[in-house]
Amino acid sequence: MLATLPCTRPPWSRLVALDANTGDIRWTSTLGLTRGLPADRQLTGGSGSAGPTATAGGLVFVGATNDARLRAFDSTTGRELWFTQLADAVNANPMTYMGRNGKQYVAAVANGTLHAFSLP
After folding, report:
1. What does pTM read for this prediction?
2. CA separation (Å) from 44 to 6, 9, 87, 88?
3. What is the pLDDT of residues 28-49, one digit of tens each?
4. Which CATH class is domain 8-92?
């Protein structure tokens, strides 16, 4: 529904990486799509209610957008590496864990459903 869009120019939401030693911004990435807009204008950023999770392997996972996507970013560059479309928006920070099989997984909850994905 486009009637509820902000009156300010996008991006309306960003994922921001800070250098913990200096406080400088290392990179920013627009976070979220507005599907009601033309395809070439959908990358606007969107609201959400959860934060990111970073891994020691250099990935940042975030699902905090109203477009119902769980995304993975490169922690060095901010480039989006992967996403999956879910039925509902993720409403908690993604979590990561090591399975009994020795593989690392990332999981997120969307509308009460747990979604888990193995990392390569």
Report:
1. 0.90
2. 11, 9, 20, 19
3. 999 999 988 999 999 999 887 7
4. mainly beta
